[in-house]
Amino acid sequence: MVEASDWELVQKCQAGDMSAFEELVSRYQQKVFTVILGLLRNREDALEVAQETFFRAYRKIKSFQGGSSFYTWLYRIAVNIAIDAQRRQKRNPLDFRESMDGVMEERNEFAKDPFADVHDKELRVKLVQSINDLTPEHRAVIVLRTLEGLSYKDIGELLGCSEGTVMSRLHYARKKLQEKLRAFL
Amino acid sequence: MKPAIKVLLFSFFLCSAALHLNAADKTFQSVQITIKTVAAGKQDSEFDPRLAPLEKQLKALNYRSYRLLKEETQTARWQGNANFEIPGGRVLTVRPQEVTNNQLSLRVQLKQGDKPQLETTVRMNNGGNFILGGPPHEGGVLVLSISATAK
Amino acid sequence: MNTCGEIRESIGAWLDGELSGAEADAVRSHLETCLICGEERRQLENLNRVMKDIFESEDFRLDVEPFWHGLRQRIAAKRPWHADLAEWAGPFIRAPSFAWAVPAVIVLLIGALYFGSILPGWGVLAPRNNFATVESIDAYGRNVALLREHESKTTVIWLYQNSDNENEGAGETSDKGPAF
Questions:
Q1: Distance between CA atoms of A109 and A130, rounded to whole angstroms?
Q2: Which candidate from B27, B105, B107 shows the least CB-CB separation from A66?
Q3: Which of B57, B110, B140 sits opposite C152 (nearest CB)?
Q4: Which residues are bridge partners to B144 per DSSP?
């Protein structure tokens, strides 16, 4: 169910109150961005998709009539746009290479962290690389489960698949990550 | 302003007015769910008159007889469960998920005892219905009409 | 669920809290005694911990200023709706006399739609679209068919029974299904 305060803000948005929309954005911008970045692996793309997510939510806010939580509704918009962006990444190999440069920057960021244990540092770098190597479907379930702690049922509804499919994709993804990182775990 | 633009503006005003008249600009607190349990068979030739509103839908299934066993209506809150007993030790659980643009999303599960047989998420028109059929019953099959209206 | 292989398949779901009571108990009691599966659990927990750390790290922190700047630009840069409509309809409208046919057609369509909804049977359109969209389905190993019946505009989900006869109820024989 929609939390009372989120729902009050949605109603104010529907009445044209821009500050209410900005408050909703402030509440969820970080969560939405983190999920999208986990799916797309590239900061520039993730920033653009996050902006597009909230822009579409702004345009479609009047069609939201309650029932599910506002966050679930917003999430669904974000995941759909991210999936479209992933398809475009696949079709445009040049863009993909550019996004891999973005990933390399992330890895270097990890290496610069002076407080991380060396073993942990290596594990984190390899883990990021291994997550990036997963297919979009497997990466999506890993991100949504690990980051958001969503139930298999909720993940299935967001991605349009059954709980059984979510369970088997998670199992497969974790197995793949374990195989690549066994020496570090 | 050019004449063509004036005409287009006027046309758009008409469309907006029509959409606004039809738009459900309100919130829905709960969902009324109706299940009609029908026994369909290939032996006799009988059509239960109480099933008249569903005649076209049922006759498309090409069985010879259709008999209404039970009709039950429950009201469920969003994310709440409405459980319906179905012949053969079965339970149909319907959970309304959300409504967007007058389209309802329902999570539907059919269980026999504690064994799940089917789980599905369906998006349908508010006030519409869909058919779930196939479980065997007395030489024929059960056909369930699942309709829901957000209120 | 007894063998190490079966338990290892389920440790992830057990850690996620997604197993039923009996299944969860089976996994828990097995892990208390099996060192190999215990090691598997430790690795999975470690993997989950590090993944969570990565997703919550600074590298996933949103740059708020550029984000807001971009979002505000998108909202402010919305094209006026009449500009979009004019661009689309422009090539079709050349003379003012023909242009007035456009709102005339729209008025007729609105009339047909509106009267159809308040006076059933008076509407000129076909029966309301009753098709449902099946967004996800799990038949637990059974065959299932999704059909759209066009005359009544109805979605039908048909569950076929397994040929190796689960106990569907005393005396119930299986039906081959409708002849669609």
A1: 17
A2: B27
A3: B57
A4: B37, B132
Q: Are residues C52 and C70 in the same domain?
A: no
Secondary element (H or E) of residue C133: strand C133-138
Burial class (CB in 10 A: 0-12, 13-18, 19+), C108: exposed
Helix (H, G, I), strand (E, B) or coil at C168: coil
Per-residue tokens: C59: 């590298």
Assigned domain for A100 exists: no
Rounded Cα gap, residues B129 and B149, in angstroms:
9
- The answer as to whether C102 is a domain residue is yes
For residue B99, the chain A residues in CB contact (below 8 A) are: 65-67
The tokens for B91 are: 């339970």
CB atoms within 10 A of CB A58: 18
Q: pLDDT tens across C130-180, in order?
A: 899 999 999 988 999 999 888 888 999 999 987 554 444 444 555 666 655
Domain of residue A124, residue span:
113-185
Mutate to test the interface with C, among B1, B2, B6, B8 (most CBs of C within 10 A): B8
CATH number, position A1: 1.10.1740.10
Give yes or no for a contact between B76 and B27, defined as CB atoms under 8 angstroms apart.
Answer: no
Amino acid identity for residue A72 in this structure: T
Q: How many domains does chain A have?
A: 2
State the residue for tokens 């068979």. Answer: B41
Instruction: Provide the H-helix boundaries in chain C.
Output: 4-15, 21-33, 35-55, 64-76, 81-89, 96-99, 101-118
The angle that helices A136-148 and C35-55 make with each other, rounded to 10 degrees, is 90
* Distance, CA of A175 to CA of B38 (rounded, Å): 46
Examine the domain organization and report whether A128 and A159 are in the same domain: yes
Phi, psi of B61 (to 5 degrees): -80, -10
Last residue of a domain, one of A46, A61, A92: A92
* Structure confidence by residue, pLDDT tens digits, A33-51: 988 988 888 888 899 999 9
Contact B78 A73 (CB under 8 A): no
B66 min Cα distance to partner chain A (Å): 32
Nearest to A65 among B77, B99, B119 (CB): B99
pLDDT one-digit tens code per residue, B32-60: 999 999 999 988 888 999 999 999 899 88
Give the HSE-up count for residue B76: Cα atoms under 13 Å, Cβ half-sphere.
Answer: 26
